[in-house]
Amino acid sequence: MGISAIIAIILISLGTFFMAVGSIGLIRLPDFYSRAHAQGKVDTLALILIILGLVVLEGFTLNSVKLLLIVAFVALTNPTGTNALTNAAYRFGLRPWFKRDRGDRKKRGGRK
Q: What is the full per-residue pLDDT of the chain (112 aa) written as tens digits?
């Protein structure tokens, strides 16, 4: 096992870890906006790390160039998509959750 394989395994493992953290955050966070923020950040980072690990594992080939183009595409579009979703939710009238709304949330039958 060479040094490039070890670096690739580390990058892919880090990406997998961040995906797991993002999944836990999706379940644990209280409202749409905090969930979207966490998922937008974590998914972008995790996907970039996993793809960079694949680039290191592949070596310098045409496939690596294609994977790097995917990294650039993800780095540009994922935050833009998250911003568009949260903007649309805000315009639709979805209010952000504040700590002072905790009692109001219980009255409406929402999550605790």
A: 889 999 999 999 999 999 999 999 888 888 888 888 888 889 999 999 999 999 999 888 999 999 999 999 999 999 999 999 999 999 998 888 877 766 555 554 455 4
| CB 14 within 8 Å of CB 49 | yes
Could you tell me which of 86, 55, 87 has the C-alpha nearest to residue 72? 55
User: Model's pTM, two decimal places?
Assistant: 0.78
Q: Using CA atoms, how far apart are residues 62 and 64, in angstroms rounded to an integer?
A: 5
Distance CA 97, CA 1 (A): 49
